[in-house]
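Hi all, posting the design record for the shared folder.

TITLE: backbone redesign
STEP: 1 of 1
STRUCTURE INPUT:
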């Protein structure tokens, strides 16, 4: 039993020795030094990027909220809803913060799911999606309040009552 183990160890030592002796040696050309980074140009501060985004897209978000607030769900495909969705998607894509882009996507998805559930007359689904929509609506009205462009419109949207179904 000892001989097979010794033979195996001897072969292993032989393989390691041959590998170490025959491997190619690195030259100076093989070693690449990392390039020294260029000094950063003056990048806009996050607050400025957010303020710019609010100036450019606040009206779109408020128009989107107007579509779904008030008298219940409005079907998006009617009366220019496609253009509003396209504008909202551009605003969503342009937002400088990835987590807030995700919240805008969740708001849009909840609104569209609420519309489709209303078309199918699935009241339970409408209520579930309306709760999600209301949660993201409240969060976004607070975000819009940070850099209000049209203060009166933001205040009116914040004060507008939206039906929120009771939680289960």
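Okay, here is what came back for every position:
SEQUENCE:
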């Amino acid at each position: 039993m000892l001989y097979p183990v010794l033979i195996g160890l001897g072969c292993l030592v032989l393989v390691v020795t041959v590998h170490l002796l025959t491997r190619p040696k690195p030259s100076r050309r093989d070693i690449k030094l990392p390039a020294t980074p260029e000094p950063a140009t003056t990048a806009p501060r996050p607050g400025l990027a957010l303020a710019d985004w609010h100036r450019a897209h606040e009206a779109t978000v408020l128009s989107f909220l107007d579509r779904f607030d008030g008298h219940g769900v409005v079907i998006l495909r009617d009366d220019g809803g496609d253009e509003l969705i396209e504008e909202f998607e551009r605003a969503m894509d342009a937002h400088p913060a990835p987590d807030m882009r995700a919240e805008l996507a969740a708001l849009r998805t909840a609104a569209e799911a609420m519309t489709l559930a209303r078309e199918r007359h699935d009241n339970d689904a409408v209520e579930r999606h309306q709760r999600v929509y209301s949660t993201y609506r409240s969060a976004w009205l607070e975000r819009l309040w940070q850099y209000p462009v049209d203060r009166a419109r933001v205040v009116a949207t914040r004060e507008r009552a939206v039906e929120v179904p009771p939680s289960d």
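COMMENT: The first helix runs from residue 2 to 22.
Let me know if anyone wants the other runs.
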